[in-house]
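Help! Submission page says 'invalid entity' but I think these are all valid:
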Amino acid sequence: MELRLTARRGENLLVTLVIPVVMLIFFASVRVLTVGTDRPVDFLLPGVLALAVISTSLVNLGIATAYERSYGVLKRLGGSPLPRAGLVAAKMLAVLVVEALQVTLLVTIAVIGFGWQLGPEANLGVAAAALLLGTLAFAGIGLAMAGALRAEATLAGANALFLVLLFLGGVVLPIDHLPAPLEAPARILPASGLSDALRIGLGSQPGDPVGPLALLAAWGLGASAVAARTFRWE
Amino acid sequence: MSAGTGTAGGAGAGRVAAGGANATEAAGGTGAAISVRGLVKRYDGRPVVDHLDLEVARGELFALLGPNGAGKTTTVEILEGYRRADEGEVRVLGLDPRRDAAALRARIGLMLQGGGIYPQARPREILALFARFYEDPRDPDELLSLVGLTDVARTRFKVLSGGQKQRLGLALALVGRPELVILDEPTAGMDPAAKAATRSLIADLRAAGVTIVLTTHELADVERLADRIAIIDRGRLVAFGSPAELTAGGLSVIRFRVTTPLGDEECASLAAALAADGAPGAPVAPGAPVAPGAPVAPDSGARNAGSTVTIHDGERPGAYRISGLTPDPATIARLTAWCASRNRLLVEIRTEGGTLEERYLELTGESAENTDGNEAIA
């Protein structure tokens, strides 16, 4: 049900599928960035995957849930025997299905269009863990906003956050290109954790995945705790 | 402190013993369907529900009436577990609506005031979705035809009419075969045909032994359907009982009609003539709004048997309603004698108990002109 409704909100597909795809194609084709790797796609694919996760679990889930709250859907569901955990599980499942679509699409484009390959040091387990923990972190943030703010405020806030994370989170711009005062805070954003972990996992950047994954897990736990505490059903 | 938040002494005076036929303890499975004692709910320190006591027996159709803002929805939402009571004890089917929420939700069906459906969802699929939450749900298609939504089963919720949305809400309340349904203004926004269909649906539910709690402004329906009625005003119970008890408890009414409308002086003279002791009356002038609380207003009429004779405008020019009198033969004789003395032709005269609507307006101190929206007294 969640999935069917997601598919029916046409405007969501724009954010979740079209924007990451356009980002990937544009930045991989146009050499505007000096990213330190031989081919920009090696840097970009993990970043765009991170973007895809953010768009689905933060922007999409957050906004949809906020509107459900303002329509009274959550209140009505709360009056039914559906357990709350069931509702959250359904939403997460829907998010994961959409993400699977996004990942498939983006990887296909990267491979066919730009000859992308896994790096020699790749560890798909790390990449998968990054996607899951990233989903948890951003879904937590999205739900925390949806449960506490008005629908319109969530809409604006989630989109603003999306842009901030897009530029500060090492998604399309390497963090070390940022001005110094921004670099330190940018490193602890969940988006940085996600894109770093994905880069390590997909072998486009050497490094220890534990730090970024731990950062993501911390965000995930923190955001979920805030969401659980502040969530209001109407 | 809590008692003092209302008007001094008003809290006590407004309360009516609400025990009645089913005063057994609510703790077990066989007690009252709903028992509310000393319920208080405040918003920003202002009491919205003020020491309310209610008891709903199993299998009865219970109507909760009151002006907008009287605390009906708040009370209902506390019963439903959406809101926490500030004070008092609430039991629904013997359970605490908040602590035992999970157990309770499977056994009650709720119809909320408006909305609550994904705008993109279609009636058939939303019913099928909710059906999956219950152990032994009703068939969604059968329910759709029961509430008359078969034709729009695949129409998006947001383009349904107000009445269709309401009917879907009603179907959702029934999908889990509840023991108790709580319907918050179920017929609001429905056209007359849908209202009639909803009425008969509610009557069928009641016949099937389902306990029904209903808030509504459709007083005529309530008078016909409800087993018992509670009228609340400003968060307090002002009347409780069967429709017959409530209307019998009201002032008995004499209606009469003369060929041409009476003037102010004539009304005053008539009220004085009707009062047994002949004291001068100062009745409501024709054309003026019916005075709220007329029966006890000290300056609006003559005392007779502890109440006040008041002449109200009737449904049409020349028609009047007299309250504050027991319609006995002597009163009728005085009415006809007064008409003869003024050379007025009395073309119609009848006596009856007041309608629930009149009783309601007396109790809540509202006049027809004050209720917002025509629907409230339709």
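Support: the input was valid. A stray whitespace character was the problem, and the output above is from the cleaned input. The mean pLDDT of chain A is 79.
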